[in-house]
Amino acid sequence: MKVRKPCNLARMYADETRTINAASPELRFMEAVCAGNSEQAVSFFRDNKLFGAAQPVVDAPYERFEGLDGIKRFAEGFAGRCHANLAYLTPVIQTVANGRAVSEVVVHFVVDGEIEEVPMFVVADMRTAALLDEVRLYCHFSFVPGLQAYRKPLFPVAHREMGDPGLLTGAPREYYEALHHTPAVDVDRICKVFGPGCKFGGYEPWGHIENANHGDPAGLRNSYEKMAAYIPRCVGMRYETIIDDGRTCVIEWVHIVSREGQESLGRIAMSGIAAYERGPDGLLCAIRISDYAGYERTIDWSQLPVSKEEAQKVNFLESFPAGVGEKG
């Protein structure tokens, strides 16, 4: 079949040396979902999570599905939500650590006899080696027909502070300190974290796949010089989860937004995810991010169950603490 809408993820990162456990439950679950086998998909969950008596969850970009009936409904509607007749899955990268598994996959949606490729992060909270408590999916909103560029923070709001770099190690820690925790972005320091040929991208929307950087150092520097104009003065990052197997560090995060970020850039706190991959030298060889940053002004709030005013209150600060984001 002809690939009508390609994505970059597999083309940039397919590597025979990567280890992917095909029997890992998040992959088996997604394979069942793509096949439309809702009974098998539900079989990876139990009535309640292992602790707390909470129901199992699948959180997709377009809806949160709770309980076994909800998960069954998710599986039954997955392909159709993207106007597809059927779907199948190609795993590209897998990171397993800290009780969680993250599979970076390409979902091939078959639409009118042609293939639309969608790159997705599949994050699973493991119940056991074979069962799941929760699955969270991330992809660009533009891949899902009718979806708005708003992803409500997936975790309860605990505090309005940036993540502590001490929770990270090696290159990801240096990267976050230089990007979010110096008095202003230190572009020179960031660039020293990149190994030769460091790649950036893989989750771009259709029509923007040329934005992926396949290893051009000048292009990377240019990107971070642009970010330095507003980070961390206008927007910061708070870690929700850290899944680090020593090679790849995957971080689920949520924005915190200052008044200047809200008023001058239209920024709103949303959930997102990023993967920072280390090369053999310990430097970053790849950065892969999935979020909706820069698309906030496209949101049609009349199509959402939350108002713009309500969304703006989440993780909002008048300004960041003294010393954060100040030039000089």
How would you describe what is shown here?
The chain has 328 residues and is α/β, with parallel strands linked by helices. It contains 9 helices and 13 strands. It has helices at residues 9-13, 25-34, 38-42, 67-81, 170-181, 187-191, 217-227, 259-265, 308-313, and strands spanning 3-5, 57-60, 63-66, 86-97, 100-111, 114-126, 132-138, 194-200, 235-244, 248-258, 271-278, 284-290, 316-317. The strands form 2 sheets. Strands 1, 2, 3, 4, 5, 6 and 7 form a 7-stranded mixed β-sheet that branches. Strands 8, 9, 10, 11, 12 and 13 form a 6-stranded mixed β-sheet that branches. Strand 11 and strand 12 form a beta hairpin. It is globular and about 50 Å long. It starts with a strand and ends in an 11-residue tail after the last strand.
> Helix count?
9
Cα-to-Cα separation, first versus last residue = 56 Å
Structural class: alpha/beta
Compressed to H and E, one letter per element, the order equals: EHHHEEHEEEEHHEHEEHEEHE
Question: Which bin fits the share of residues in helices?
Answer: 10-25%
Low-confidence segments, given as residue ranges, are: 323-328
Radius of gyration (Å) = 19 Å
Q: Could you outline the blueprint of secondary structure elements for this entry?
A:
Elements: E1 3-5, H1 9-13, H2 25-34, H3 38-42, E2 57-60, E3 63-66, H4 67-81, E4 86-97, E5 100-111, E6 114-126, E7 132-138, H5 170-181, H6 187-191, E8 194-200, H7 217-227, E9 235-244, E10 248-258, H8 259-265, E11 271-278, E12 284-290, H9 308-313, E13 316-317
Parallel strand pairs: 1-6, 2-7, 8-12, 10-13
Antiparallel strand pairs: 2-3, 4-5, 5-6, 6-7, 9-10, 10-11, 11-12
